[in-house]
Amino acid sequence: MEAAALLFNSKGFHGTSVREIAAKAKMNVSLVSYYFGGKHGLLERLMVEFLEGYIKKLEEAIKSKHENALEKLLDMTYKGLDYLQDKHLRSRFVLREMTLDSMLIREITTTYLMKEKHLYSIVLKMGVQERVFSSVAPQWAFMHIRGMVIMPFLHPQYIREVFHLQPQEQHFMAIYKKEIRKWVTNALAVPEVKEVQRPGKAKNRTAAKEVVM
Amino acid sequence: MEAAALLFNSKGFHGTSVREIAAKAKMNVSLVSYYFGGKHGLLERLMVEFLEGYIKKLEEAIKSKHENALEKLLDMTYKGLDYLQDKHLRSRFVLREMTLDSMLIREITTTYLMKEKHLYSIVLKMGVQERVFSSVAPQWAFMHIRGMVIMPFLHPQYIREVFHLQPQEQHFMAIYKKEIRKWVTNALAVPEVKEVQRPGKAKNRTAAKEVVM
């Protein structure tokens, strides 16, 4: 699967043969067919495994304890980002493949994509109930947040070329997470929560409330 | 070029032959080579023409008169969105092609992508000077705004499948623009400007400032 992901990334799915995958993995060609049922089977396995792992991270974040729904939402995005960064080659391939409008891809991915939206909606609605978020249209909020999460992994060459940053590095991720915190807080949170989130205030939340900016 | 864009979209660049393009365009194959210098030439022409048109729209928005930098910034995103929607098949192809990490694509696109970033930076910095935007890191702000602009055209099948919305329809675009206005205003604007932007207040800006929410 690692060999397949590498080859699919550089030569595309259609440009890669089972023979090449087998050679790269130092396996007999017939074993690829035996284990995966050919190239399409490999693609499916690769995507399903990747997406299942991703959804699991989101579920972990939902189950964890958080101060409020904003922190839970941010933890979801962070866990998602870490997962995508950890598997950045595969992320890129899967995300790119998902921009294709093919029946096969749709059949493989739709369940996971619906689940991702559902999990984010839960937390967004939770935040409105907790009065941590101001009136929010969950589906649009989710759409933007998801865009921020996948962007560095779908467009790594863009970030390298135009921003001279390396999306696969920890340094990039640290800044990127902070920026997402800022945007999401500004876009969704009620004023009192925003106040607590200001730079330098996050560590000392009770004191922060007393500060008039 | 229209025939090429259609075929590239459905069969991919590598999966399409010059012969097929010529047949679709009802042209002689040799003319494709004569006018475009083959398939790579066609790809380059298609992308350059598309990106030049896009940059022109951003420049138009910059030159137009606006109440403040926030309105200018939003006008840029709207003009960009309208352009991408108007040419949605081509947008999709070009945006998808740009996710590839190939030398050819990089050579064609980098100038335009740098220019896009530059134009957005001008307006973002203008907003900080005008005290319409609070302290903003222009490059991160641009990165998120750009993500919102291209998303519906790079992922139309996702929006159809998961949100049951049609990104090529005017109705979608009207809502999407409003959502972008909300996000960008919340993320960047100083409190006084945000107040004016609240629903129902946009029409009557002087009165809005007197309202205490």
Topology:
2 copies of one chain form a homodimer.
Chain A: H1 2-11, H2 18-24, H3 29-36, H4 38-63, H5 69-86, H6 88-97, H7 103-129, H8 138-154, H9 156-163, H10 170-188, H11 191-197, H12 205-210
Question: Summary?
Answer:
The structure is a homodimer of 213-residue chains. The first copy, chain A, contains 12 helices and no strands.
Q: What does this protein look like?
A:
- Two copies of one chain form a homodimer.
- In chain A, helix 1 (2-11) crosses helix 6, helix 4 (38-63) runs parallel beside helix 7 and helix 5 crosses helix 6.
- Chain A starts with a helix and ends with a helix.
- Helix content of chain A is 77%, strand content 0%.
- Chain A is built from twelve helices and no strands.
- Mean pLDDT of chain A is 87; it is low at 202-213.
- Chain A has helices at 2-11, 18-24, 29-36, 38-63, 69-86, 88-97, 103-129, 138-154, 156-163, 170-188, 191-197, 205-210.
- Chain A is mostly helical.
- Chain A is elongated.
- Chain A has a single domain, classed as Tetracycline Repressor, domain 2, CATH 1.10.357.10.
- The longest helix of chain A has 27 residues, at 103-129.
- The A-B interface holds A 12, 14-15, 96, 98-101, 106, 110, 113-114, 117, 137, 139-140, 143-144, 147-148, 151, 154-159, 161-163, 175, 179, 182-183, 186-188 and B 12, 14-15, 96, 98-101, 106, 110, 113-114, 117, 137, 139-140, 143-144, 147-148, 151, 154-159, 161-163, 175, 179, 182-183, 186-188.
